[in-house]
Design goal:
single chain; 195 residues; mainly alpha; Four Helix Bundle (Hemerythrin (Met), subunit A); 81% helix; elongated
């Protein structure tokens, strides 16, 4: 019985030690993936059929929403560290709402591109629109994963799994969310300045 308890404790400690490094490894692979996509974008700009265009208004709105979501999650974590669970929960729910708004604005942005005659595929598509929509869509998939992470964090919040001295799951979720936020800010400015 004592041996079994010791093994469980050792396993819990090992999980805590490996969780953040594993997250960092996955984020580095995502950086490499998007670096490859944006590099291909830059190389493709030399093509004769490259078309420059302005970013849709919805992409600007989504950028504001994603930045706001990082702030709300930051405050949620601060409140949790002070054991102000209710305020922490409110702010993490606000983060989820802002993140959902981001995804919606990305969808609106895709439609704004389409209504401007800029298509992802088909005879009317261009290399530049295919790249911007493809890269943005790949980012949206990562944001959707982030929304699932936020739902898990909210669920665990309701189950009282987080306290000021036990925040690992929350911290992992926050690191991932801030990462995908920063990734979008990079992509937004990349598309804004390099066209």
């Amino acid at each position: 019985m004592i041996l079994e308890q010791d093994l469980k404790e050792e396993l819990a400690v090992a999980k805590k030690k490996s969780a953040k490094p594993m997250l960092w490894v996955s984020m580095i692979s995502m950086v490499m993936f998007f670096a490859g996509l944006t590099s291909a974008y830059v190389i493709s700009m030399k093509r004769d059929d490259w078309v420059s265009f302005d970013l849709p208004l919805a992409f600007y709105i989504s950028t504001i929403l994603i930045i706001a979501s990082s702030f709300t999650l930051f405050f949620s974590q601060k409140f949790l560290k002070k054991d102000k669970r209710q305020l922490s929960l409110i702010f993490v729910i606000l983060t989820l709402i802002l993140g959902t708004g981001f995804v919606w604005q990305q969808y609106v942005g895709f439609n704004q591109l389409k209504s401007s005659g800029l298509f992802f595929t088909g005879p009317e598509s261009t290399v530049s629109t295919s790249f911007i929509i493809g890269i943005t869509f790949m980012h949206v998939l990562h944001i959707l994963a982030g929304l699932v992470v936020l739902l898990v964090v909210i669920y665990n919040h309701f189950k009282y799994k987080y306290k000021s001295d036990n925040m690992l799951g929350f911290e992992l979720g926050a690191i991932f969310w801030h990462f995908v936020d920063l990734l979008w800010i990079y992509l937004f400015f990349f598309f804004y300045f390099i066209r």
